Amino acid sequence: MENKKAKGALLIGILAISIFPILVRLSLNSGLISAFYRMAIALLFLLPYVLISKKLQVPKGKILWLSLLSGVVFASDVAVWNIAIQHSSATQATLLTNLSPVWVGIGSFVFLKIRPATNFWIGTVVAIFGMIMLVGFHFFLDLSFDMAFGLAVLSGILYALYILLSKSILDKVEILSFMTLTLFASTIFLGIICLFAGEAFFGFSNKAWTVLFIQGIVCQLLAWICISYATQHMRATRVSLSLLSQAVLAAILAYIFLDEEITMQMIIGGLIMLLGIRITFYSQNLFSMKLFQKQKIKNYD
Question: What is the pLDDT of residue 263?
Answer without folding.
Answer: 75
